[in-house]
């Protein structure tokens, strides 16, 4: 086994890819050897010391290739430190009781049922209507007009870097 940590992601419109790159950047800055790769391109995880995997959320779920990754590599993942994160709009809504965290953590339930996580990152994502296929652009446009959502980039880079920083000792076991 190498000393490399895999940071892998499932993204449709690019915001989760950006979060994965930021996590990898922080780990690299702290001296960790890291490879970043979309989940779809990962063949074999045997050689990685640890795995950090994150997905965008659609319809309250990790993207299909995200779940397929965890299912396919489950036996290997069970033998390594495994951290997971979600990128979603639920986290963009800040409530006094922190209900957004409960919602976002629930998106990870199917993942942690398959493989226990050493840490979970819950991150706000992006709503950019111009990047959505037409079939989604119309309902999301209606949702913005009715005030349910507001377009914007809600990624909080400090929170993301802090999570990656705190992750470090959990990946080195
Ligand atoms: C069709 C669609 C469904 C979505 N469903 C959810 C959802 O159920 N819960 C949520 O919090 N965010 C949801 N989102 C918001 C995305 O998770 C958010 O825009 C994220 O940043 C997208 O990541 P990506 O740019 O990597 O694809 C949805 C977005 C789209 C386009």
Please give the structural blueprint:
Layout (H helix, E strand, L loop, with lengths): L3 E7 L4 H15 L3 E6 L11 E9 L2 E2 L1 H9 L1 H4 L4 E7 L10 H9 L1 H6 L4 E6 L1 E2 L6 H12 L6 E2 L3 H15 L2
Parallel strand pairs: 1-2, 1-3, 3-5, 5-6
Antiparallel strand pairs: 3-4, 7-8
The structure holds flavin mononucleotide (FMN).
Descriptive notes:
The chain is of the alpha/beta class and 173 residues long. Helices cover 40% and strands 24% of the residues. It has a single domain, classed as Flavodoxin domain (Rossmann fold, 3-Layer(aba) Sandwich), CATH 3.40.50. The strands form two sheets. Strands 1, 2, 3, 4, 5 and 6 form a six-stranded mixed beta sheet that branches. The longest helix is centred in the N-terminal third of the chain and has 15 residues. The two termini are 13 Å apart. 36% of the residues are buried. The model has no long low-confidence stretch (mean pLDDT 96). Flavin mononucleotide binds next to α1, β3, β5 and β7.
């Amino acid at each position: 086994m190498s000393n490399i940590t895999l940071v892998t992601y499932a993204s449709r419109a690019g915001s989760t890819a950006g979060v994965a790159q930021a996590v990898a950047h922080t780990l690299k800055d702290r001296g960790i050897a890291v490879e970043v790769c979309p989940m779809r391109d990962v063949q074999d995880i045997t050689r990685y010391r640890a795995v950090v995997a994150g997905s965008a959320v659609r319809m309250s779920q990790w993207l299909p290739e995200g779940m397929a990754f965890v299912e396919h590599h489950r036996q290997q993942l069970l033998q390594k430190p495994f951290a997971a994160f979600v990128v979603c709009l639920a986290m963009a809504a800040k409530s006094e009781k922190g209900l957004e965290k409960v919602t976002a953590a629930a998106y990870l339930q199917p993942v942690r049922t398959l493989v226990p996580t050493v840490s979970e990152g819950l991150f706000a994502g992006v709503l950019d209507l111009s990047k959505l296929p037409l079939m989604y652009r119309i309902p999301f446009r209606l949702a913005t007009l009715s005030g349910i959502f507001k377009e914007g980039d809600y990624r909080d880079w400090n929170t993301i870097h802090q999570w990656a920083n705190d992750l470090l000792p959990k990946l080195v076991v």
